[in-house]
Amino acid sequence: MDIDVRGPRFGAALTTVVLAVVLITGSFWLLAWQTLAFALGAAGGVGRSPYGWLFRTAVRPRIGPPTEFESPQPPRFAQAVGLVFAGLGLVGFGPGPEWLGLAAAGAALAAAFLNAAFGYCLGCEMYLLARRVTVRAQ
User: Reduced to 3 states, what is the DSSP secondary structure of residue 49?
Assistant: First the structure.
């Protein structure tokens, strides 16, 4: 079942804010929250993430029904990519080195910002590229 394209973009906007605050404060616990959000989105799809729930219950009823849909697999893959970077960030902000936390959180922030500001989902594009490569290889 396809999903409302506005949901992942809303989640990316919240993720952008969270990761910016992580970079400003160096907060391990805030990054842990974002890691959990990525994990839930990767495991159950973006609609099962906390940001997906917030979009579905608080935002979507106020902005009306969707007019554009997308397949849920690319955003789900993007959540998994975000999970990897957030996990690396936790390692960096935890036992260290701190530069790893900053670099990983910064990379995740850049990807989230691209989606939030321009509707360009880097993880989704990685998914589509991988699909094209695997289909050609068969």
Answer: coil
Q: DSSP string covering 83-106, please?
A: HHHHHHHHHHHTTS-HHHHHHHHH
Q: How many CA atoms lie less than 13 Å away from 47 in the CB half-sphere?
A: 12
DSSP 134: H
Taking the model in full, what pTM does it have?
Answer: 0.94
Task: Read off the pLDDT of residues 64-79 as tens digits, 9 standing for 90 and up.
Answer: 999 999 999 999 999 9
Q: How far is CA 79 from CA 28, 62, 74, in A?
A: 19, 25, 9
DSSP letter at 48 equals G
The answer to whether residues 23 and 105 touch, using CB atoms and an 8 Å cutoff, is: yes
Q: Are the CB atoms for 3 and 46 separated by under 8 Å? A: yes
pLDDT tens for 106-138 read 999 999 999 999 999 999 999 999 999 988 777
